Amino acid sequence: MQPVTPTSLLMQFDRGLNHAASYLLCGLKHLALWLTGLLSICLYSGLIFDYNEGLADISQFGWVLMLLALLLVWRHCHYARLFGYGFWRGLARGLAAQGVALITEMTVLGLIVLMVLSPEWQTANNAIGEGDVATKTYQLLGQILVLLALYFGAPTRPLHDTLPLPKPETARQDPTISPTLDKEVTL
User: Fold this and answer.
1) How confident is the model at residue 143 (pLDDT cuts 50, 70, 90)?
2) How confident is the model at residue 117 (pLDDT cuts 50, 70, 90)?
3) What percent of the chain has pLDDT over 70?
4) What does the chain look like in DSSP terms, one character per residue?
5) Which of 69, 106, 121, 178 has the fewest CB atoms below 10 angstroms from its CB?
6) Cβ pair 91, 38 in contact under 8 A
7) Count of Cβ atoms closer than 10 Å to residue 96 Cβ
8) ∠ CA 83-84-87 to the nearest 5 degrees?
9) More confident residue, 175 or 65
10) Which domain holds residue 111?
11) Contacts of 38 (CB under 8 A, 6+ apart)
12) What segment(s) does the record annotate as region Disordered (predicted)?
């Protein structure tokens, strides 16, 4: 055992300030992920309605996506109740997964735009025309990423609960012959 070294007041203040800044940055990270996830859900729920004509505007693929999203949200809520997550903890987990999916999608889109802007890709870009195919493909990939985030964002049992608890080994007692009784017998 090492002896405890006395720390100065300045070192204690420095450590406290470090911990406070760490907690603040961690909270801001989670808040940014949750807000990005909420933005993702709002954006992609509006993408299903292409021309703002109500339910007549939804394609068959849009109906399938909405049905899958509804089933995945039910799965999310079912697992949250099953594993004892509270409402806010389950919601935070789902929104964080949606935020990570949107950030991933935007990163991939940025890389694709960088490739398209290069001179070698200009001829392929001109061949696409107005870009309607690229826009529809981007929307399709975005909606699939939302469904994947709903699937992967479902609550799971925390890691420390999944580990099996060690079973105490019972010591086997051999029968012995002794002149004293182990238990007192009453009639």
Assistant:
1) confident
2) confident
3) 72
4) -PPPPP--HHHHHHHHHHHHHHHHHHHHHHHHHHHHHHHHHHHHHHHT-SSS-GGGG--HHHHHHHHHHHHHHHHHHHHHHHTT--HHHHHHHHHHHHHHHHHHHHHHHHHHHHHHHSGGGHHHHHHHTTSHHHHHHHHHHHHHHHHHHHHHTS----HHHHSPPPPPPPPPPPP---SS-SS----
5) 178
6) no
7) 19
8) 115
9) 65
10) 13-156
11) 95, 98
12) 162-187
Tokens of 174: 């051999």
Per the CB < 8 A criterion, the answer to whether 131 and 124 are in contact is no
* Torsion from C-alpha of 64, 69, 75, 81, nearest 10 degrees: -150
Pairwise CA distance, residues 125 & 3, whole Å: 69
What is the predicted pLDDT for the residue at 26? Answer: 94
- Read off the tokens for 99: 């935020």
Which of 44, 36, 50 is closest to 69 using CA atoms? 44
Residue length, the chain? 187
